[in-house]
Specification:
Layout lengths: L20 E5 L2 H11 L3 E5 L3 E6 L3 E7 L3 H4 L6 E5 L3 H10 L3 E2 L4 E3 L2 E7 L5 E6 L1 H6 L2
Parallel strand pairs: 1-4, 5-9
Antiparallel strand pairs: 2-3, 3-4, 6-8, 7-8, 8-9
């Protein structure tokens, strides 16, 4: 019998930091326009094949061009979830920019929630907490 010893080396302290979330799309400029116009996010870099979008709180969203059918196929993953100040303002604006609602807006004790699909098929959850509901009044 042959016995092999495998030693796995891991550093004693390992720190991972969030860099960005990348979404694949067939049309980067169209997707970037939706995130800018429909959701009010800031596009910081844009080419035909790559876009960088700043999300409040320090997160960066990256859009990357792909022509591969398997890579561009959309389902329910990933689901991007954003906190918004006024769901009743954001949803109609997103719909004007080509989004579609995926079910009704839900009114729950924990807040209002909506699921929508961007024009390029990305799933986006929008959530307004009760404190956010009272903040704008």
């Amino acid at each position: 019998a042959i016995t092999a010893r495998v030693r796995c080396w891991l550093p004693r302290t390992m720190s991972a930091r969030w860099r960005f979330l990348m979404l694949l799309t067939r049309n980067v400029p169209k997707s970037a326009e939706f995130y800018r116009g429909g959701l009010g996010l800031t596009v910081t870099s844009l080419t035909e094949t790559w876009a960088e979008i700043q999300v409040p709180g320090g997160t960066k969203l990256v859009l990357k061009q792909t022509d591969a059918e398997a890579m561009a196929s959309t389902g329910y993953s990933p689901l991007i979830t954003l906190d918004v100040d006024d769901l009743d303002d954001v949803v109609p604006n997103a719909l004007q920019h080509g989004a579609t609602l995926d079910g009704p807006i839900r009114h729950e004790p924990s807040g209002k929630a909506a699921a929508l699909r961007s024009p390029c098929g990305h799933m986006i959850g929008l959530f307004e907490t009760p404190t956010q509901q009272g903040a704008g009044a």
